[in-house]
Design a protein that fits this description.
The complex is a heterodimer of chains A (134) and B (69). By secondary structure, chain A is mainly α. Chain A has one domain (3-130). Chain A is built from 5 helices and no strands. In chain A, helix 1 crosses helix 3, helix 1 runs antiparallel to helix 5 (106-130) and helix 4 packs antiparallel against helix 5 (106-130). The longest helix of chain A is centred in the middle third of the chain and has 30 residues, at 71-100. With 69 residues, chain B is mainly alpha-helical. Chain B has one domain: lambda repressor-like DNA-binding domains (434 Repressor (Amino-terminal Domain), Orthogonal Bundle), CATH 1.10.260. Chain B has 5 helices and 2 strands. The longest helix of chain B is centred in the last third of the chain and has 11 residues, at 45-55. Chain B is globular. The relative contact order of chain B is 0.25. The model of chain B has no long low-confidence stretch (mean pLDDT 93). Classes of the chains: A mainly alpha (134), B mainly alpha (69). The interface between A and B is medium-sized, with 15 and 13 residues.
Chain lengths: 134, 69
């Protein structure tokens, strides 16, 4: 498998995971319940993504995997993780306000904060991909 | 803090290399070469040395501190 193919599989998988987690969080907020669909879906999607990306990386030659995960990619992934950290931190005051004002319940907050925290680095990596940096 | 500038594109095109060819010679993706040329991404010392070797020039011929450029 070529480096470009591994990159495409990884970026597409990460993007789909980020969007799915975001959709779940939005679903929680819009439906008013912590499980708008099966609550196993976000976790299973994460595991499937990990399997797909790892398998794709091992199916290619070692050199192709190294190119797919070259220093620009590692730098952008690190940047996405750091951005995700700050998103996670800022979710606390945002959801504190939402809970205090009875806009969302505790279980909803737990479900949406968890999935948004998971989604953030993947969505930031998607942004890097769109901008031609990953 | 001083930024890093480069004239990588000049050296690459002088040798008639495409970004993809230089990327292959240095074991990175074409995007990495592109972002270095556009001064979006600052490469590591190791990658900088690999690029200089692939282009058969000194590191100082390609990279310089912005204040010295």
């Amino acid at each position: 498998m070529k480096a470009e193919t591994i990159t495409l599989i990884r970026n597409a998988s990460f993007s789909l995971l980020g969007l799915l987690l975001l959709a779940y969080a939005v679903g929680v907020l819009l439906s008013g319940r912590p499980d708008p669909v099966s609550p196993w879906i976000p976790g299973l999607a994460g595991i499937v993504t990990a399997i797909v990306v790892t398998t794709a990386s091992f199916m290619g030659e070692r050199k192709a995997s190294a190119i797919a995960w070259d220093e620009l990619t590692r730098s952008e992934w690190g940047r996405s993780l750091r951005g995700g950290y700050w998103v996670a931190i800022w979710l606390y005051p945002v959801f504190a306000v939402l809970m205090i004002t009875d806009i969302v319940s505790g279980p909803q907050t737990f479900a949406s904060m968890g999935t948004l925290t998971g989604a953030a680095p993947f969505l930031l990596f998607l942004r890097a991909w769109i901008r031609g940096r990953a | 803090m001083a930024g890093l500038t480069n004239n990588l594109k000049d050296h690459r095109t002088r040798l008639g290399l495409t970004q993809a060819q230089l990327a292959k010679a240095t074991d990175v993706s074409r995007k990495t070469i592109n972002t270095i040329e556009n001064r979006i991404f600052t490469p590591s010392t190791i990658l900088s040395l690999k690029i200089a070797r692939a282009l058969n020039v000194s590191l100082h011929d390609i990279f310089a501190l912005e204040e010295d450029a």
